[in-house]
């Protein structure tokens, strides 16, 4: 579900409570190792677990002096971030 293409981590398919657990450590290691762009354009469905996953990766990146930005964030995930009041914390790619 994570494809690494240089600095880009591409996520595909559903990001839900049922699918994010195996992605946590792999993404945290990748975010800690180098500056990353997380491409979410191929995510089919996302719930609050997706936000938790992304914030864990972001914490790992920042703790290691790395930069992480999000690209292609699905509208549903953006809406969920707005609902929870955390949309301003998401580092979106310009």
UniProtKB/TrEMBL annotation:
Q: Spell out the SUPFAM superfamilies in the cross-references.
A: SpoIIaa-like
* The STAS domain, residue ranges: 8-94
What Pfam families does its record include? STAS_2 (PF13466)
Question: Per its record, how is this protein called by name?
Answer: STAS domain-containing protein
